[in-house]
Amino acid sequence: xxxxxxxxxxxxxxxxxxxxxxxxxxxxxxxxxxxxxxxxxxxxxxxxxxxxxxxxxxxxxxxxxxxxxxxxxxxxxxxxxxxxxxxxxxxxxxxxxxxxxxxxxxxxxxxxxxxxxxxxxxxxxxxxxxxxx
Length: 133
What we know:
The chain has one domain (12-132): Trna Endonuclease, Chain: A, domain 1 (3-Layer(aba) Sandwich), CATH 3.40.1350. It contains 3 helices and 5 strands; from the N terminus they run H-H-E-E-E-H-E-E. A 5-stranded mixed β-sheet has the order 1-2-3-4-5, sandwiched between helices. The protein starts with 11 loop residues before the first helix and ends with a strand. A hairpin with a 3-residue loop joins strand 2 (69-80) and strand 3 (84-89). It is α+β, with helices and mostly antiparallel strands. It has helices at residues 12-32, 38-51, 96-109, and strands at 56-66, 69-80, 84-89, 113-118, 128-132.
């Protein structure tokens, strides 16, 4: 399956990782389809990334600072190679608050790219938002 590459100023190796990660998510969606819980999709994405030997962390906990003081933690669904935040949803439709959530995760994690994935979409490509800081 061929995915359209999005022209950006990101390094080629990161673009390749993004492409491979999206491919893994599409494979999960093709196998499971819409209608399951987010936690199921998260585990399936982890299994697919493992099979592809793409490094990742599930439910990575990151501290949140305000004016130099730690005030809490964010929990990321999946952090791919320390560079791509995956936010996995299973909702009727993506909302602006979901995009804002990914932007917050990017700021906290230091990652430059976030993929907001709605596995409840009929076709995952329709439920995919790529967010670059």
